[in-house]
User: What shape does this take?
Amino acid sequence: MSAAFQLSRAMSIARKEGRHIRRDPVTLAAALGLPVLLVCFFGFVIDLNVREVGLLVSDGDNTRASRELTDMFSASGYFKVAHAGSAAEATRALGDERAKAALLIEPEFERNVRAGKPASAQVLLDGADNEYAGTVVAYLAGIQDEASSRLTRAPPPPASLRTRFLFNPELNSKWFIVPGIFVIVVGLIASLLTALTVAREWENGSMELLLGTPVKPLEIIFGKIAPYLVLSLAGVALVYAMARVVFGVPFVGSHLLFFLATGLFLAATMAQGLVISVVTRNQQLAFQAAMNTGMLPIQLLSGFIFPVESMTPLFQALTAVIPARWYMTLTRALFLRAPDLVMIAPSLAALAALAIASVAFAWRKFKTDLEP
Amino acid sequence: MDITLRGFVRKELSQALRDPRMRGMLFVMPVLQLLLFGFALSSEVRNIRLAVVSRPDDAYTRRLAERFDESGWFKRVAPGQGDPFDWVRSGRAEAVLIAPPRGGDVEAGRGSAVYQLLVDATNAERARGVEQYARAVLTEHLRAEAGGASARAPAFSFSVRTLYNPEEDTATFLVPGTLCLLLGLTALTFTGMSMAREREMGTLETLLSAPVTPTEIMLGKTVPFVILGMIQLPLVLLVSWLMGVPVRAPLWEIAACALVFVCSAVSIGFLIASFMKNQQQSMLGTFLILFPMIQLSGVIYPVENMPAAIRWITKLDPMRYFVVLVRHLMLKGGEPGAVLPNAAALVVIGAIAWFWARHRFHQTLN
Assistant: This one.
């Protein structure tokens, strides 16, 4: 028995694992279909820009000014305007899910506006869906400015704001979502499938057999995770191609840094999957563990949808130990902002530290659990 | 309940509940997830890192900047020297407010001060929020600058009232959604795994040769998981209530809707299981179904924003109806006009899944 790590033996395990994957249609579908599904899903389906908010207008004034105000809502493109007979009817419609917002214009609206008295119109929002409520309030600010200048004869204010949206001037929410999908795809393949692979051998009892062969434990592990490494990289390439070609997201940063960050994230995630696999020795448990310690934090705490900046300080601190959070920051920055190495050094260093820690931990676990 | 069914229920429940890890899955994870959704996550725009560029002697801009600090939305950062663009590029600042070149004092005096606001629009949604808040701060600043007594209200304004969730509390919005996720997850995974395990271990054959009818087996493999799913409901409702999320509809209405949903989810789980040969396949298969089911349900992203074709697909998703039901029941208190159509949709989906699963199950037997 030779002491050194032999690539040929590891490769034969990798070939065996590759065959397992090819033979099993469901795993293959999960590994190859999922990245495509995920990109299409998040790319096409998820649109965080709120459009076509169902707005019921109860116009108690019915004058030129009030109609002009209603037109501003429909012209903004954010609202689908319908008319309600009375204020009470509009309010009721919010209660039984027929509308998301209501605009109530009081009688005397035009007279007040023309007379220069402070005029107002009431907007009711359905707070049960506060994703909506928040965004609609943001749209209202724009309409309010427009209405002040068009309906009233108030002089322009002495100071004004001119906003420049950098890196995504058209405020396309896909440019935010799509670069985040890397984290989800890599996390899924690298952590979920890696967690299942060694657990399956334990559960079937074939791990004992493998350990009994001249193949070293380290070679078994390398052989077992190599196909998933290939699959993960294929997933990354696929997401990258789709982001650029299908969604037209620009990539302005350095590809070398992107590759480096991806490598570090892969190492951290696969090490985590491996630890789960070695520790649980049971597929069902490995699946649950991978879902709860991998997928869940990746989706929720990485900043994919819910920004880290908006979390409470305690949870913000907690996200620091999640590799996905740093990788998320890095991919988004590299895609849209073109930072220098110095600018992203802190995130890169954090990711590297977590990757090293995970691999070291997996290594120790592996030594105690597998080595004779 | 007949004796065979009782036997099945006892067996499945004790199998699921005796394992401490399963108990953790059933009772600890839900609480953790609710806490996470309720307290940690929020899509609210907060803690915006703002840098201000102005001449040192510009008092007008200094007062404006102080108003930004006081608003509570912005956190001032001082990235030091260099190009403001680079501060945003490196992520040290999310927004930079640049005073007009001759200073706010001079230009506002002449009535034409234009402040430039650079906003990092990597996150488009957040960028929109940042702009909105900056405008609100400026409006308030102008009002205050116009002088205390003569301060006039803006000529036109909206008075906004948010119904049902006046504080726009994220927990109130996310917690009912989490309830749907939890019930769906338990019902679907446990049903699927149990069937796959019997099949993988070969005990399904034993079961079939035992003196029980196929319908009894099918009921025996579904009813326990309905019970298991429903066990979670009181716990989840209690935690939501403790977190301050209102529960406005009568509890029996919520329980009835939950029961209908759990039954359909269990039927779907049983249906998936009939396609799967072993546990690994079953897990991945469940995941492949559960994932779109969650994403299309409207728990995380609004269904109304999806493209028309996808919106049509969401009509097949039982969770979509359940989310509407739970949010409606908890926050608004249950108008029959909103509850009945959604509950009916759940019944239809559940019935289709059940009869399809039964058909497949009988086929396997022959």
Remarks:
- Chain B touches chain A through 107 residues (CB under 8 Å).
- The first strand of chain B starts at residue 48 and ends at 53.
- Chain B has a mean pLDDT of 84.
- Residues 135 and 317 of chain B are 40 Å apart (CA to CA).
